[in-house]
Amino acid sequence: MNSTLYRIVVIDDHPLFRKGVVQLLALNPQFQVVGEAAGGVEGVKTVAQLQPDLVILDLNMKDMDGIATLREIKLLDLDSKVVMLTVSDESRDLVNAVRAGADGYLLKDMEPEDIIARLQEALDGQMAIPERLGRALALALREDDTTDRNQQISHLTEREQEILQCLAQGLSNKLVGRELGIAEGTVKVHVKSLLRKLNFRSRLEAAVWAVENGIK
Amino acid sequence: MLIRPPKLSQLSLIARLSLALLILILPGVLSLLISGWMTNLSSGGGEAINMAGSLRKQSYLIAATALAPADPIPGSHPNLREVIAEFERRLYHDSIRKALPQDDKDAVRIRFNEIESRWRNEIRPGLERDDALYASILLPSTHQYVHEIDQFVDALEQAHEERLKLLAQLQWISLLTVFGVFVWILIWAYRAITYPLSSMAKVANLVESGHYAARISTPASGEIGTLKTALNRMFNELENSYSQLESRVAEKTAELEQNQTALQLRYRIKALLADHEPDQAIFDSVLKALGEFIPLQNAAICLTETNPRDIPLKSAFKLANNQQEGIRLGCLEQDCAGCLEHSQQKQGSHPRKELVFPLLDSGITYGIMPLTLQDGITLSGWQMQVLEDVSHNLGAALAGSRRKQSLHRLALFEERSVIARELHDSLAQALSYLKIQVVRLQSQLNDKPDDAQATLQELREGLNAAYRQLRELLTTFRLQINQGGLNAALQATIKEFSERTGIQIELANHLLGIELAAEEEIHVLQIIREALANVHHHAMAHSAQVHLAWIGNEIVVQINDDGRGINPSPERAQHYGLSIMRDRAHSLGGSLSIQPGLVQGTQVMLRFIPSTPFSNRESHHDTHTPSPASQPESDRPDQPSFNRHSNQDHSA
Prior knowledge:
heterodimer
């Protein structure tokens, strides 16, 4: 498991910090930074070209902000996970990012070790949100109109419902596969399908929603 | 149908003129007729005289014939018979007979009767007898007879003469009559035509020169009378319409004057409000101007933060009144809501003495303007209109001031958010970068002695602290006070802290109606936030109270908690927040004190004089808030030391 090499692209318009992140990631041999970008436009291009496993994205950037960049990347329809790494701990930014399909939302003032750990979790398919922001996110998402989703949930296949429960428990794809006795690739396909059916932009959003709505 | 002969005065001029002319002609015609008649009479008269005169010659002829001897030549002498016949023919001639009047006593008749009877009874018989005796007396008798005939002729002549005299008299009378009638016509023409006409002309001139009451009083008849009546009627109409016109002009003039007054007032008030931000002095001037135009006993302008109905009693402030004029409103101060309701209840029934005008702008009430009229005065429509306009102007001015303030606020926040972004872009990134470097250093120094590790740990904590402070600063700069004003921001803050910390926080804001400058609001809000953050981090409190009040001319903000109280010399970690609070108080031009609470916990108190225009209020009647200011400052020994402490902090 540890032998997997993750290809990472870092998008941040602050050169010094970008350098620091690259150096930080270098501490972990599992991570391999394959590309850097100093802005959203350049970042999208890089991601499209390199198709990395993980994109680390800043929120406040000059040419194209993080949310817009995130949407562009999601439009590429890659398997790349996108984790926001930002200074802003405002719940509005967090909610916007999650709604735009972010797979994680980390703060730059977190302990660097913590950042590494969370990135790893995100790569496993878990929620990568600092605890103090989790509650704000749940509160914000609760305000969404969920009646549609409650109806839609009956349209999920049995397998998809099982996978949604696993997501709510914060299991990664691999663990879900093991739990349900299916291949990791199959899990991915099911996750994509259920996200589409319930109109979620990320498994993070789906997981938070499932927890909030008592699906376990 | 009875036709009455019209009265003379009712006759037309032409009729009367015709009548006059007729009267003028009539005597002439009469005299002409009489003269004709007279002439006719006299024409016979001359012949009669002639004939009578010839009787004398005939008498002598008879006598001569009778006495003459027989004619020598027959036929050379007149025959006696023929002469007698001739005499008789003449005596009884038509002309004489015609000249004889019928009246027996008339002289002519008597004379004629005498000569006729003498002829018939005496002379003719004597002649016929032809006796000698008679012949002897014939001559004297004839002589005497002729004398009698003479008398007859005289009588005839006299009668004729008298007739001529009568004719002359008649002529005279006729002449005089004509003259009289002429004079009478002249007089009549003057009195009936010229005089009325000239007097009418006089009156017309009078009317022309503006004496519309003048009337024609001259008596007049006929066409002149009609003219007079018509003219008088016309003058009546003229006078009527003129007086109507005059009253209308007076009405219009009064209206114009009113309008001018109203315009002047409006202009003055507009000018007052346009030049400056509305403040106490401006309001005083406005009320003074109002008082000059409208008889007011009291007038005030009370400002409220929102609709006075929504504000609990005693929280609306009365900030401006016309004290210069010695006018003070007799209302319960700070009871604007009651004032407004009071006035509206009375509305409709009878003319009110107290009026309340809301200061409105686009549906938002910024205050009210209660007025008390002088006794016995009721306002007319235009005055009410002016008052309403003025209240609208005031409302608009207040709204404008508030808009300006919120624009200012917006600009301020714009600037602050720019600063926040820049801080984020530079410092936060750099700090994060440093943290990463520390981690790297830590991993590189893995096997090194504990000292180095401890230093690294220290470095890490320092960085974390710096980052936390930076985050606080960012929060501060992102803090916004929007449309809801300070009160809404305070409520949001209280809610936020209550939820985040679990401490029960009460808010008592008695500042409603007081507009603070945007910077002041920010400072007050920040100090409260900082104090609450301290309560959260250090005090271990269960509950806290935030109190804002207007005391005297100061704003007093207190934050009390029931925590463990403050250390007389607070630890360094706390200093940072405290010095920020103190800095803020300093930039407000006020003071900040931190001291143990009365029972337990800590009390943070901020006092400052706001820079807003309404701060020069003189009244000190605020009693509904506990007044910490009443405690003498000198009774707090800890306060000066605290100040010193903060000064040291600054220099450090």
